[in-house]
Amino acid sequence: MKTLHVKIMIIILLFFSSCSDRSLFTDPTDPGLGGIFTILGGELSGTLFKSKSPYYVTNSISISNGKILTIEAGTIIFFKANTGFYISGGIRAIGNKDQPILFEGVSEVWDGIHSTNPTDTLIFIHCGIQDVYLPVGSQFKYGAIETRNANLTVKNCYFYYNYAQYGGALSLLYCNAEITNNIFYFNESLDYGGAILSQNSSNRIINNTFYKNFCLNFGGAITIVDPIYEEIQNNIFFDNFSYRGDTRIHMVSGDSTNIFEQYNFLAPDSLNPLFISSIDFHLQENSPCKDAGNPSPEFNDSDGSRCDQGAYGGPFGDWLD
Questions:
Q1: CA distance 225 to 24
Q2: Which of 161, 227, 238 is closest to 197 using CA atoms?
Q3: Is 119 exposed, middle or buried (0-12, 13-18, 19+ CB in 10 A)?
Q4: CA separation for the pair 45, 227 (Å, rounded)
Q5: Could you report the per-residue pLDDT of 33-70, keeping only the tens digit for each?
Q6: For residue 203, which of 236, 245, 173 has the smallest C-alpha distance?
Q7: d(C-alpha 86, C-alpha 148), whole Å
Q8: 64-114 tens-digit pLDDT
Q9: Whose CA is closest to 90, among 75, 117, 73, 69?
Q10: What is the Cα–Cα distance from 56 to 49, expressed in whole angstroms?
Q11: Distance between CA 321 and CA 304 in Å, rounded?
């Protein structure tokens, strides 16, 4: 955990050294990280540029109906406590392997990203989302990213240290979602889905790693309610925990034939997937998850070999060194 924060701080320091077009941040509520910031709040559209990053959200930000916000690769957005990001339009948060986009709290608590009936697609690629905290009594109850009646793409992202009452990292409610090649690590919920809650949705959940997620009640990793169609393939579920239900994939209600599940690492925790380390989820050469994903060529790794299970397998698996 400390190592991950060190890596993030190194990235932040690199950004500080290149942001010469802005004033030194001197607000009395200085987040204490030092350096130069661009203050952000209110309605947004157009583009958030890396050159003005890091951004510091002091009042919640939003995207209105019919508007689209593009966030450049390498942009960092810090959120003050009790601020959030509300999307009624569309978003294109598309980073890359070398320059991810980061959404995180300054005081390690913020309200997350929420979208209900958006007028356009929501796209998050090469993003990090962490430090969302939505305890009992919060205005919001669902997910670090909560989407309702939305078309959503989440690819090559990591979700770390998020807490919500339902779906610690992702809450997918009446959605169509592509959830591919992501890392869900140390997320937590109170009732359903330490990492993901899916309700009345149609989702493809392919080549993700779910590790050390926790739910006090049902489903340490994924909880599904009344599925429309859930395709769950080539994922690694390891060392997730819940006090009730299946710790990996738990179904609350609905037609189980609407869940298509295969080629996942679902072994008991006594069988280890053999990550490189506790914070590096690449696979060791002798891992049982090597070449264990769907053998169909469409799922092959980027080098053309049979798909590995987990976040670094499949055609989009070469995304983090």
A1: 48
A2: 227
A3: middle
A4: 34
A5: 567 889 999 999 999 999 999 999 999 999 999 999 99
A6: 173
A7: 12
A8: 999 999 999 999 999 999 999 999 999 999 999 999 999 999 876 899 999
A9: 69
A10: 13
A11: 18
Tell me the CA distances in angstroms from 247 to 199, 206, 207, 234, 243, one per residue in order.
Answer: 17, 18, 18, 17, 8
Tokens of 109: 């608590």
The owner of tokens 């979602």 is 177
Predicted model pTM: 0.90
Burial 211-241 (b: 16+ CB within 10 A, else e): bbbbbbbbbbbbbbbebbebbbbbbbbbbbe
Give the H/E segment covering residue 162. Answer: none
CB neighbours (10 Å) of residue 17?
9
